[in-house]
Design brief:
Length: about 250
């Protein structure tokens, strides 16, 4: 967080320095007013278009992060429910199910989460452990009706777990389009550059305008960057749903 504010402040100071230099060496001329109407119109159009790109980018990364939060919570809840349901299975199958779900959760927290934080895919091992969990709950022929009903609910939770895991893997790979990144960076530069086209005679007013605009654009772009990878950065989705559910196991 401190690094983000340092970058925002640094860019704002750089643009302020450029404004001061411009007013010192190239002060606005008295005949500069007619050109200001054209500059104002162009700047307004660039600002509107940039706001559209910025809004689209923010919505995209926020929806990805929100989806990641939902998938993680659903996956952890399904794994927790499977462990609870294992108590209603026959003793041998119940023990196998508990061991399999504990191994799966341990792998997700200790191996997959650091990999996703580093920008890597979760890997195939998690699916192998999920298959082991699916095979552990096979009910013998002499199972009671209650055990059969518990198995059906366990299978339903396994389906939920499977879907949530697929969603989590998709969220880890879903990043902002390079086209939108191009629009964010180039549009931000153009928006700030067009501020230098105005013939503002009060240098202090011009400095405040340019500093505020450049700081706001920089902060917003950095915010999009932090939200772009849902499992990495300041706003990263952590593994707390898994550790919370399985803290006492």
């Amino acid at each position: 967080m401190i690094e983000t504010f340092a970058v925002v402040l640094g860019i704002a100071m750089v643009t302020a320095g450029i404004v001061v230099i411009r007013h010192h060496y190239w002060p606005p001329a008295p005949d500069e007013e007619p050109r200001e109407d054209v500059a104002e119109y162009i700047s307004m159009m660039v600002g509107v278009l940039y706001a559209l790109v910025l809004g689209l980018s923010m919505v995209s990364v926020w929806e990805t992060r929100s989806g990641a939060v939902g998938h993680v919570q659903a996956e952890a809840s399904a794994a927790h429910q499977i462990r609870l349901l294992s108590a209603g299975l026959p003793p041998l199958e119940g023990e196998r199910t508990r061991s399999a779900v504990d191994a799966y959760v341990h792998h997700v927290v200790s191996t997959e989460w650091p990999a996703m934080a580093a920008g890597q895919p979760p890997g195939r091992r998690g699916w192998d452990l999920l298959n082991d969990l699916r095979a552990a709950g096979q009910i013998p022929a002499g199972a009671t009706a209650a055990q059969q009903a518990t198995l059906q609910e366990t299978l339903a939770q396994l389906s939920t777990l499977d879907d949530a895991r697929r969603g989590r893997e998709a969220d880890a790979a879903d990043t902002l389009s390079p086209v939108l990144w191009f629009g964010l960076i180039v549009g931000g530069l153009l928006t700030v550059v067009f501020m230098f086209m105005f013939g503002v005679r009060r240098s202090f007013t011009h400095v405040v305008m340019v500093m505020g605009l450049s700081a706001l654009i920089t902060f917003t772009v950095l915010l999009v960057y932090q939200l772009n990878e849902p499992f990495n950065g300041i706003f990263a989705v952590d593994s707390s749903p898994f550790t919370r559910y399985f803290a006492g196991t």
